[in-house]
Amino acid sequence: MEDIATYVEGLAAAAKAASRPLGFASNEQRVAAVRAMATALRDAEPTILEQNGLDMDAAAKAGTNAGLLDRLKLTHERIEGMASGLEKLAELPDPMGRVLEHRTIDCGLDLQKVSVPLGLVAMVYEARPNVTADAAGICIRTGNACILRGGSMAQRSCVAIAHALADAVEACGFSREAVSIIETTDRAATGALMGLRGIVDVLIPRGGAGLIQRCVKESLVPVIETGTGNCHIYLHKDVDMQKALPIIVNAKTQRVGVCNAAESLLVDDAVADAALPQVVKTLHEHGVFIHGDAMTCAAAAAAGLAEGADYVPATEQDWGREYLALEMSVKVVADEDEAIAHINRYGTGHSEAIVTEDTAAGERFLREVDASSVYVNASTRFTDGGEFGLGAEIGISTQKLHARGPFAAEALTTYKYEIRGCGQTRP
Amino acid sequence: MEDIATYVEGLAAAAKAASRPLGFASNEQRVAAVRAMATALRDAEPTILEQNGLDMDAAAKAGTNAGLLDRLKLTHERIEGMASGLEKLAELPDPMGRVLEHRTIDCGLDLQKVSVPLGLVAMVYEARPNVTADAAGICIRTGNACILRGGSMAQRSCVAIAHALADAVEACGFSREAVSIIETTDRAATGALMGLRGIVDVLIPRGGAGLIQRCVKESLVPVIETGTGNCHIYLHKDVDMQKALPIIVNAKTQRVGVCNAAESLLVDDAVADAALPQVVKTLHEHGVFIHGDAMTCAAAAAAGLAEGADYVPATEQDWGREYLALEMSVKVVADEDEAIAHINRYGTGHSEAIVTEDTAAGERFLREVDASSVYVNASTRFTDGGEFGLGAEIGISTQKLHARGPFAAEALTTYKYEIRGCGQTRP
């Protein structure tokens, strides 16, 4: 293979060229392409399963753990799931071509601000082949071309899926490069992709903290940062424990490996004596290992939990940790001031919740906590594009520019100003 | 002075802390602060002029050119201009606290998407002291704290202005660190600022291409890229030269050092024989030096212009150049296809214009040219926050994420989701 950087740049340039006609295609044309992609995926099932089998064999030989193997594995049902996901995209309202503003400005110029696609979207992800179809689908639906970079372990599966989708796009009259995938597992390709500012319009990493941090640090292409969630639940002094305990259990244990799971519990000092025994007991019953401050550890010991096996004293580091496991840090705070300051210091701006019967305290928390999604009396697990009614979620942004919190098709738009005149010059 | 990185981080951390109460201050409180800033600036005029005099002396001694000295110089009128600019900000509608969406989602949760300030805004600029007041004013108006980094040549002037503004902010009950300025001319301070991802929410460079490129390349903090404009005017085959010539003259010569000035002229082959003689004559009469392709050079020679003195053959490099001077590249293109492809290849996504009597050609140009502001039959010089009716412009973004084209107060907002429940957990 030729030099990796040259290869990636050539691929991206072709994808960018392919993005142009897509960008002004009609809604009907884009919907037809997404539907054709669904059909193509179903038709390509034998090839995709065969290539996935090769990926699975290689991964198993390399000693990959069961969790990763499960994410990698494709079945008839999972391919059908991808295809029906594409069909759902077809039904989304079109986010493009909306007139966001329209007015006559100085000198009689007619000015319209119109939503348009970004152009070329790069998605970098890990060994989840289904992301290939999700990512390509949302891009084509929104008039963007995409350049995909899947995890090396899933390379054959991702390429097989991308080829089937590119065939469909081509059959609909678009350039097949509108769905491009990097066909080398060389790590240098990701670096090359991150350097293509001006060709690639946005880079969206989907995966673990390591991948995302690499993109944030190295990319010259603008990145939408996703995924890390050190989410807190704060039990205010006017907490109703009948609400609090189910919220804690749900936020911590319903699905532990996700970014909207709670990682840290703050307990108001005024209710600590009453609340902590219930909290440590409930967490323990649900298999949650506790990293507690002094009061929490005392309550855990008093409840008969074993230091080391069931709980340990928390370190400063624990306040910033995203466990993504059945572990939780627990800390007593003096009051709401301290709770908010602690969250704004250690949180990742993802999802934060207060449990309180005091409306004013709840409103203050909503106002003063700096995060994409702030809750009163509800589980942080609701932070999700589907739950929020946004349609097909692309990810959950923890940055503030362009897209914050759960984001979907609209985040793949920008806008342009169209100005119609009859010879005007600036005075 | 202590280590530069520690100094800048401490300054930014204090500014970030100051941003919190500003972020949920009422509109009235923020308006009062901006008005107080205007008054403080007027009151501090003697100090500011004194410090500016020191900057001017040092700059003159260093052999600074007249243009830069003029930008650096403050007078009573210029200080009054800054103060009245601040008073205008007070009258802007409040971009904060708007409910962007409101609905009841699953499980009866009440969801509101609300506009909120970004938090801490860093502005890095050059030797124009007035940017200090503009930048601080728009930030305080929108509930953001700012950390400012002025050009070293204007350091004393910028610090004097910032101190006056900080005094005013403090007198209004906010922390004076809400208007922070880096008080060292050490270049390392800018580098340190660019590393503060997570503390600084956005970095906005205002200045020349060198500064902006440095920020784009080095910053870990998200940047809004501004300022470079390689803007084109395309004379379509159905051009009305009575409109075209004034548009060319206005776009090229009305103000040459600005990013919305035209730098390149494309002439449709079908009208080149008729148009080029008028074009080269008009440009020449307005003192514009021509970088022409073969046909343009031939027309220039035929019109009696002198090669070397009045025109030269264009090189490949010329198509991408932003002259910011009385120079223009001129090229004949085969048709609208080539014009659009050329613009999408060499343009900077700023402002692009077609001159045509053919509505369909105009609409196609609007649709297919990838730029923030696309014009039919008007000068590119209209690309401006004031002209577009946006209020106080911060800059003109040439990126697609978050803010594109002229941007103002709204670009200093993000949003958060506020979710009010009564104990809901995710099923």
Automatic annotation (TrEMBL), chains A, B:
EC number: 1.2.1.41
Alphabetized Pfam families for the sequence: Aldedh
Keywords: Amino-acid biosynthesis, Cytoplasm, NADP, Oxidoreductase, Proline biosynthesis
The protein's name: Gamma-glutamyl phosphate reductase
Subcellular location: Cytoplasm
A GO MF term: NADP binding
Catalytic activity reported: L-glutamate 5-semialdehyde + phosphate + NADP(+) = L-glutamyl 5-phosphate + NADPH + H(+)
InterPro entries: Ald_DH/histidinol_DH, Ald_DH_C, Ald_DH_N, Aldehyde_DH_dom, G-glutamylP_reductase_CS, Glu-5-SA_DH, GPR_dom
PANTHER family: DELTA-1-PYRROLINE-5-CARBOXYLATE SYNTHASE (PTHR11063:SF8), GLUTAMATE SEMIALDEHYDE DEHYDROGENASE (PTHR11063)
Originating species: Collinsella acetigenes
Pathway given in the UniProt record: Amino-acid biosynthesis; L-proline biosynthesis; L-glutamate 5-semialdehyde from L-glutamate: step 2/2
Gene Ontology process terms (BP): L-proline biosynthetic process
CDD domains with a match to the protein in the record: ALDH_F18-19_ProA-GPR
Top-level division of the source organism's lineage: Bacteria
